[in-house]
What we know:
Strand content: 15-25%
Oligomer: single chain
Shape: globular
Amino acid sequence: MNSTSAWQRVSKRRPCPICGKPDWCLFSGPDDSPDAAICARAESGRRCGEGGWLHVLRDDGPTWSPRVRRIELSAAQIAAATTDFAKLAADFRAAVRPEALSRLAVGLGVFVESLRRLGVGWASKHGAWAFPMYNADGKTLGIRLRLPGGRKLAVKGGKEGLFIPGALNVTGNRLLIAEGPTDTAAILDFGFMAVGRPSCTGGVALLIELVRKKSKPLDVVIVADGDEAGRRGAETLVAKLTAYYPMVRIITPPPGVKDAREWKRRGATAADVQVVIDAAPVRKLRVLVRGRKAGYDGKRR
């Protein structure tokens, strides 16, 4: 990576200039006027490996040029690459103290049972709550860590996956897709079938596989966060899903409400969510004729 200055991790004081979030992303340049960002949530035409997508904010900003380099793996890195994440997640679940889980549920505004369905555990080494991430077949790919202050990390060596609750029976039922494990827990609290994606742009291929091959729901509803990044990520996902599945909708919480968990904390009920779902138009893949390419036009039907 060629840059006029070092890449820095975003923070609460200096959030990502693209998605506005205080974690995962990087920026380059002065704090008050960055010249570029690598956003883990908002897509662009320039992918920077697993870090995210490059967004150049100034003409003299950095450019991305792939290069091959030799790396030496340490013993710790080799161990991380061979970690049995299913066993680790089970160990974390066994370490949960009921009274601590109850406090977490109260603090988040969700039910203990919903957190248990998502396989929540306690990673004492990291001092964080742990949520396993799966592929469409239920294999544990990695573990998301949530520190007491809300900061999100991941156990080294894992991959991003979906937050899938136990006893999920979607065939013939409606499936809601939320962002992150705690929003997924809130949707489960309402009584809906739900899975979570790792971020507002992540998990697309896994969700397509889950919906197309594994679960076969009656219809799919994407529950987007109320911010611009959340809505943009939902539109990207719906454009992909409609190529494989005929019944997809997008809903967002009411204006001024950040996400599904806040929606619930403000007193929303399953009936309130159902009203929003019923009002949301079905998004469909539109096939254009007369020599034009088939594609998703984004229009409501």
